[in-house]
Every structure is written in C-alpha cells, then in structure tokens.
Amino acid sequence: MKINNLTRGLLLSSCLVAGGMAAAEDVTITIESWRNDDLSIWQEKIIPAFEATHAGIKVKFTPTAPGEYNAALNSKLDAGSAGDMITCRPFDVSLALYEKGHLAAIQDLDGMKNFGSVAKSGWSTDDGSATYCMPMASVIHGFIYNKEAFKEVGVDEPKTEDEFFAALDKIKADGNYLPMAMGTNDQWEAATMGYYNIGPNYWKGEEGRLGLINGTTKLTDKPWVDAFASLAKWGDYLGDGYEAQTYPDSQNLFTLGRAAIYPAGSWEISGFNAQADFEMGAFYPPVKNAGDTCYISDHTDIAMGMNTATKHPKEVKEFLNWMGSAEFASLYANALPGFFSLSNHDVKMDDPLAQEFVSWRGQCESTIRPTYQILSRGEPNLETDMWNASVAVIKGAETPAEAAARLQKGLASWYKPQQ
C-alpha cells in the first residue's frame, strides 16, 4: 500500500492527537510530608500499589525535613505552591490549617467509614462535625522486655500491678539487670512512657480524658492522683543516676542488654530490632486488679488531607479513599513496624513484636494522650506541666496530690470548663 504525503500527514496528526489525549489523562498529584525517612517506602511500595489499580493517576511523594516542615508548608500554602495532599500532624497544628481554609473537610469520603471516633479525633473539629485528614497510623504504649532476662531471673509477663512491682523487685534483687531503663533528664519520657502509659487504667481511658475536656472530671480526682502514686514507685527501679539519664541513654541501656524492661512507645520497634541481639517481648500496662478492663494509649500520630487549592480534587479523593482501604492499611503498617493502622481493618503484622502491640486492641480499650486535644492550648501549658510533674513525682520532689493540685490549678486558670 502506497502512503502519499496527505495520508502520512493525517496519520501523523492522528498519532499526535492520540498521544496528547493519553498524556492529558495522566494526572500527577503530589504529597507534602515531614517523613523524609519514608521516601523509599512510598516510592517502592505504596505508590506503585496505588498506581497499579488507578490508571491515569500518578503520585509524587515530596517530603521536607521534619524540623522545617511546618514553616515550609505554611509558606507554600500562602504562596499557592503546596502539593495536592498534606500529611497532617495530629490536633492543633492541622486544626489551624483547616481553620485557615487550607485543608478540605473530607468526612463524607467512603474511606472515612473505616475509622472510629478515637481514630478521627486527632483531625476533627472540637465538636466533631468536620474531619479534615484521613487517619493513617497511631503509636501504642506499653512495655518491651528482654525475654532472656525474664527467663534468667524467673519472672513472667505481669498482668496486674502487684505482679508488675513483684517482677521489678525480683529483677532488682537478682542484680544482673537494671529493672527498668528510663531517665528523667529529658522530662517528656516520664509523662509519655510513664504517666500516659499506665494512667488510662486508672482514669478509664476516654471516659477520663473526655471528662477533663467537658469539666466533669478534675486532675485532683482519685484516678489521676492514684496514677501518679503508682508512677512515684518507679524511682526505686530506674538505677543510679537516672535523673541525668537521657532518652538515648535509656535506649542504649536496653538494647545493650543491661536492662530487663523498657517503658515504650511502639515507634521503638524498628530501631530495637536492628540494635538488640536478644529476643524481645511486650506486655500492656498491668491492670490494678485481675479481671479489670485494660486500657492502652493508642495515640493518633499521622494522617493525610486534601489541599483546598488542589486542581485535581477528584484524583486526590480517589487516593484518600484508597488510604482508607485494607490494602493501604497492611502496606503501611508492615512497611513501618510500630506505626499501626488506625482503621477498623484486621491488619496482620509480619513483625512479631509489632503484632503483639497491635493485638492489644482486641483485649483492651483504646484512648489517646489526655493533654493533646484542646487542653494544652493555654498557659500554663498542661502538656509541658505534665512532663515536669511526672518527673517531680518520680524523684519525690512532689507528692502525687501536690502534683495533681498544681496541674489542676494551672488548667483551671485559663480553661473555662475546669473553673
């Protein structure tokens, strides 16, 4: 068949038009994030999985260094150059972005149906009427322990508080291991891995936390004081010089095999797996009495929202809905052991230590850190005060009642429901 110049020209222009149409169908959406350490995970696992089933949508993960993220993101949003999707920190930072009109309300997306109220609390308005980020992951608190040390000393995982302190006494008496690796130099650990870890068993998780917000509960009430009283006993088991011991010091003491127990956040799992050469186990915060309902701090950590200025809302919504799926939940949680899906999907973890942590959701009631929503917006800042109060109680510089009274006075000085 001969092709004359006219035919050749028509064929060429047809190809160009077809090629242009194909290119037009491919929409690229970008993600802003502070998790620059996650870049390879997004590029090699998460994005390819999405693109494989969503033809025509390309995704780019464009992180900023964690310490620079908030300032850089705000500058981009003000300049209109921010990405289509915004990785959201929990509570007030993201709430401020929503209130400024930078994050869209997405509570009506189908994918949001897979999350409960606790999971959504980090990215919802105070009244719960709007949710502006799709929840991604939480971190869970508990205790990681050296299985070899437990076997050598002859102690089992404690289920009650009496068993917990009996185990600590036995480890201390044995003398070969520091009972618990935690210092008070950096302050935040005393509250985060101490008071917020064991406290929910006393104030009954969400019941107590929401009671503080609506004013029906006070920090001077018995559950909050009793939790401090339990924390006050820890000082006897932290070893000489714990007052000057930093967070990295504590990590090293445990991974080097010198301590039997580490009051933990699940974010430690990957690092501990890489550094410790002994088998580890984990147990949730022991309850006061056998048979009591257990509560765990299952704290909202990271989510994803839609930039209201995006030119591709349809494609962004497709991606966010996919983030609510079981496929994404499993991909993300297994790529980052210790960062657990907040969805209602049953996610099986490949890492045994991570699976142990996440299994507690089926045994205990979940709550979040009590100071993170609403209650740390004024001065004195309740979160910061909770740090130094936890340290003071462990050191014996304040009694549990004195610490609670100081915290209550500070909160009541600016928060109307507590006045």
Task: Please describe what this structure looks like.
There is one protein chain. This protein folds into 2 domains: 24-139 and 300-355, Periplasmic binding protein-like II (D-Maltodextrin-Binding Protein, domain 2, 3-Layer(aba) Sandwich), CATH 3.40.190.10; 140-298 and 369-418, D-Maltodextrin-Binding Protein, domain 2, CATH 3.40.190. Strands 1, 2, 3, 4, 5, 6, 7, 8, 9 and 10 form a 10-stranded mixed beta sheet that branches. With 419 residues, the chain is α/β, with parallel strands linked by helices. Helix 11 (222-232) packs across helix 17 and helix 17 (382-395) runs antiparallel to helix 18. The longest helix has 21 residues, at 5-25. It has 18 helices and 10 strands.
Set down the secondary structure blueprint.
Elements: H1 5-25, E1 27-33, H2 39-53, E2 57-63, H3 66-79, E3 85-88, H4 92-99, H5 117-120, E4 134-146, H6 147-153, H7 161-174, E5 178-180, H8 188-198, H9 200-203, H10 206-214, H11 222-232, H12 247-255, E6 259-265, H13 269-275, E7 280-283, E8 295-306, H14 313-323, H15 326-335, E9 340-341, H16 352-359, E10 365-367, H17 382-395, H18 400-412
Helix pairs in contact: 8-17, 11-17, 11-18, 17-18
What is this structure, in a nutshell?
By secondary structure, the chain is of the alpha/beta class. Helices cover 45% and strands 15% of the residues.
Which structural class should the secondary elements be placed in?
A: alpha/beta
Low-confidence stretches: 5-23
Supply the CATH class of the largest domain.
Alpha Beta
User: Helix segment count?
Assistant: 18
CATH level 4 superfamily of the largest domain = Periplasmic binding protein-like II
Mean pLDDT comes to 94
Q: How many E strands? A: 10
Taking the sheet with the most strands, its summary is: 10 strands, mixed
**Basic shape:** globular
Fraction of residues in β-strands = 5-15%
Question: Any idea what the CATH architecture of the largest domain is?
Answer: 3-Layer(aba) Sandwich
CATH-derived topology of the largest domain: D-Maltodextrin-Binding Protein, domain 2
Number of domains: 2
Written as H for each helix and E for each strand, in order along the chain, the element string is: HEHEHEHHEHHEHHHHHEHEEHHEHEHH
Report how far apart the termini are.
Answer: 92 Å
